[in-house]
């Protein structure tokens, strides 16, 4: 899991808590080190969290480990999460509430997926999107008969 923190996004705490619920290996925060921990509900004390100064650092980190970067953003041309084949070894990348994933991150990602939405709002909360995307990964790759 990774999330860009370019305007002190309050959703980071929710993403950390959700990542913990799905047993994500780590949450990577790109950009500012400071974030609102209230939404993490204390999971930030035991969920592994890494910081990257910028998108380039995250991309280099992922590349060195053979991890695909999957941007989750409702932009034109994005594959539908509901039908996309997510890579088993990947980092799901989320952007800030509102503007979404930065252009640099989206351009450099291996895949961009969007979550189908049919209402009048432009986007759903980043914490909610993280939960939906992680569950999609779980449905495709988790061995539900065994502990992680």
TrEMBL record:
<dbReference type="InterPro" id="IPR051259">
    <property type="entry name" value="rRNA_Methyltransferase"/>
</dbReference>
<feature type="domain" description="tRNA/rRNA methyltransferase SpoU type">
    <location>
        <begin position="3"/>
        <end position="135"/>
    </location>
</feature>
<protein>
    <submittedName>
        <fullName>SpoU rRNA Methylase family protein</fullName>
    </submittedName>
</protein>
<dbReference type="GO" id="GO:0008168">
    <property type="term" value="F:methyltransferase activity"/>
</dbReference>
<dbReference type="Pfam" id="PF00588">
    <property type="entry name" value="SpoU_methylase"/>
</dbReference>
<dbReference type="InterPro" id="IPR001537">
    <property type="entry name" value="SpoU_MeTrfase"/>
</dbReference>
<dbReference type="InterPro" id="IPR029026">
    <property type="entry name" value="tRNA_m1G_MTases_N"/>
</dbReference>
<dbReference type="GO" id="GO:0032259">
    <property type="term" value="P:methylation"/>
</dbReference>
<keyword id="KW-0808">Transferase</keyword>
<dbReference type="InterPro" id="IPR029028">
    <property type="entry name" value="Alpha/beta_knot_MTases"/>
</dbReference>
<keyword id="KW-0489">Methyltransferase</keyword>
């Amino acid at each position: 899991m990774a999330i860009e923190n370019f305007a002190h996004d309050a959703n980071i705490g929710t993403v950390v808590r959700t990542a913990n619920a799905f047993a994500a290996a780590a949450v990577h925060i790109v950009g500012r080190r400071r974030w609102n921990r209230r939404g993490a509900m204390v999971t930030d004390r035991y969920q592994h969290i890494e910081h990257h100064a910028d998108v380039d650092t995250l991309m280099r980190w992922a590349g060195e480990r053979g991890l695909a970067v999957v941007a989750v953003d409702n932009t034109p041309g994005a594959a539908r999460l509901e039908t996309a084949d997510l890579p088993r070894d990947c980092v799901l990348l989320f952007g800030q509430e509102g503007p979404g994933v930065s252009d640099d991150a989206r351009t450099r990602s291996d895949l961009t997926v969007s979550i189908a939405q049919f209402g009048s709002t432009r986007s759903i909360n980043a914490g909610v999107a993280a939960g939906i995307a992680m569950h999609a990964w779980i449905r495709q790759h988790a061995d539900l008969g065994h502990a992680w």
